[in-house]
Design brief:
The chain is built from three helices and no strands. It is mainly α and 118 residues long. It has a domain of 65 residues.
């Protein structure tokens, strides 16, 4: 990570509300992505919210990526977009049933074609 020109955060970044066991233990992030979030997340959050002004070209590009996610180039930018989508987006719910409700007008009595006649 020595090639990153991004400022490390003043403190380590954690999200104890959405990821109480840590980013990597959530199963959503790799160890590398967790390291990026913990190290640079405080700075990325401050840049995103406008509390911090960008110092260099990489930080200026990060601001553009926050506004237009399609421009993400670096692992740092993609990791932040992944974090915001998981932390702020809707939680996916998967069901095992394909139909939500049975049709109230549907007749579930014995089908005449299936009834055996003696």
């Amino acid at each position: 990570m020595s090639d990153i020109e991004f400022r490390p955060g003043k403190k380590r970044f954690y999200d104890n509300v959405k990821f109480p066991r840590g980013f990597a233990k959530s199963g959503d992030f790799t160890l590398g992505e967790e390291e990026i979030l913990v190290t640079y997340g405080d700075t990325m959050l401050a840049l995103e919210s406008g509390q911090l002004e960008p110092d260099n070209a990489e930080e200026k590009h990060f601001i553009k990526v926050v506004e237009n996610p399609g421009k993400a180039k670096t692992k740092l930018e993609r990791t932040w977009l992944k974090y915001t989508q998981l932390a702020r987006g809707r939680k996916r719910f998967h069901t095992l049933n394909g139909r939500s409700k049975p049709d109230a007008n549907e007749d579930f009595s014995e089908d005449e074609s299936l009834v055996e006649e003696d």
